[in-house]
Amino acid sequence: MDIGSTIRAIRKRKKITIAQICEETGLSQGFMSQVETNKTSPSIATLDHIATALKVPLTYLLMKKEERMSIVRKGDRKITTSGSESLKVEHLGSSKNMKLRLVEFPPGASTGEAPHAHPGEEVHFVVKGQIIAEQGEDSARLEEGDSFRWNACTPHRVVNISDELSIVLVAVYMEADSEQDEDFL
């Protein structure tokens, strides 16, 4: 872990001196310098005092870089295709267990002729257009602004029933130990 560099970066960004941190925490400047250069590892109690002085949650100091906020700019999104109809899929973001995708369904397009299943759970939000969502014996017509969720291990299918492009925002949750299938639709 690189807690010291994180502390230094926050302190400098907030224009706080080591002396100010030491005054508030009761720590020596030499000790704070060693913390910031990762030459010593402070206790959780000491880190809590430092976090309070920096006005950040203790948990933020303990997070690895890959666990912190991640940004995907519109122009940097990965774009793939999915299914037999090559639906356009924009990858909006993901974490260890969750994926957020924007899927475009041309008029009449579907996720495939036959319903299919995969591990995980999905929540869908119809951004534009009209679709039919089918799962087992359940079928629903959904329009812009409607949403639904289902357990993806039960065969399911989505069809655009409008004469225009339909766009669906899809959040997929999978257990960390699941095989994460890119072609999840």
Automatic annotation (TrEMBL):
A single MF term (Gene Ontology): DNA binding
A single Gene Ontology CC term: cytosol
DNA-binding as UniProt keyword: yes
Highest taxon above the source species: Bacteria
Cited Gene3D superfamilies: Jelly Rolls, lambda repressor-like DNA-binding domains
Keywords: DNA-binding
Annotated ranges, domain HTH cro/C1-type: 7-61
InterPro entries listed in its UniProt record: Cro/C1-type_HTH, Cupin_2, Lambda_DNA-bd_dom_sf, RmlC-like_jellyroll, RmlC_Cupin_sf, TransReg_Diox_bact_type
PANTHER family noted in UniProt: HTH-TYPE TRANSCRIPTIONAL REGULATOR, TRANSCRIPTIONAL REGULATOR
Name of the protein this chain belongs to: MerR family transcriptional regulator
Organism: Cohnella abietis
